[in-house]
Specification:
Layout lengths: L1 H4 L2 E18 L5 E18 L10 E21 L2 E15 L3 E18 L2 E17 L18 E12 L4 E11 L22 E11 L2
Antiparallel strand pairs: 1-2, 2-3, 3-4, 4-5, 5-6, 6-7, 7-8, 8-9
Length: 216
């Protein structure tokens, strides 16, 4: 649905993927750090709207990535009733030859949680997401590049407070209060989609999320 809203109708998409993950339990008790990398060689075929003649018939396309990769760096620390997590991720894509686009997605978060009693844990986290999209070749004549990450369409900054209740050892319920700045819909939406927001997006969004989980 996302690609179709942008006038792209895929027939095939896939390719070679390879990567690695390295983790280290440091001498500091409770501290784990790690990094990972994945490379992808993606080819896509399908139909798309002719940007120079949007009202005309769809035209066939084939696109092979010049570069698609993801780097991640993360850390976890736990001591007693306290838990702290953090992660940084960069996702970069470059599609097309003489005409195409690059996307540079950067995101990080810091979170903390503390178990105040046996069945209740409270916490908070902050996540920071930005995307830059650059178009080159003929398509750049009709599709503007997006490089200003201060614009709401190119970022999501989310402040969150949480509370988790363990009903028993198998079942938990979690409440989250989100206070979001931006909506980040440039090429890779971060939870906001045009199909379910026909009136457009607000620069700021507040949300109450209720989750539940079962494990055995």
């Amino acid at each position: 649905m996302l690609l179709q809203s942008q006038g792209v109708y895929l027939k095939t998409q896939g390719g070679l993927q390879y990567g690695a993950d390295l983790r280290w339990k440091t001498p500091l008790k409770g501290l784990l750090v790690g990094l990972s990398r994945i490379n992808q060689d993606i080819t896509a075929t399908g139909l798309t709207v002719n940007q120079l003649d949007p009202a005309g018939p769809l035209e066939a396309f084939s696109s092979t990535s010049k570069a698609v990769w993801t780097n991640q760096f993360y850390g976890q620390y736990g001591k007693g009733k306290l838990r702290i997590d953090s992660e940084y991720r960069r996702f970069f894509t470059n599609f097309g030859a003489s005409s195409g686009n690059t996307n540079d997605v950067r995101a990080w978060y810091v979170s903390g949680a503390y178990r105040i009693i046996k069945k209740i844990e409270v916490g908070s986290y902050y996540s920071h997401y930005t995307i830059e999209s650059v178009y080159y070749g003929p398509i750049a004549l009709v599709v503007p590049s997006q490089t200003d990450t201060s614009l709401p369409a190119n970022h999501v900054y989310d402040k969150v407070i949480t509370a988790r209740v363990d009903i028993n050892r198998f079942w938990n319920v979690k409440l989250e209060g989100h206070f979001m700045d931006g909506y980040g819909v440039s090429t890779y939406p971060d939870g906001f989609y045009p199909q379910v927001n026909p009136q457009g997006f607000k620069n700021n969004t507040n949300a109450l999320v209720i989750k539940t989980g079962l494990h055995f």
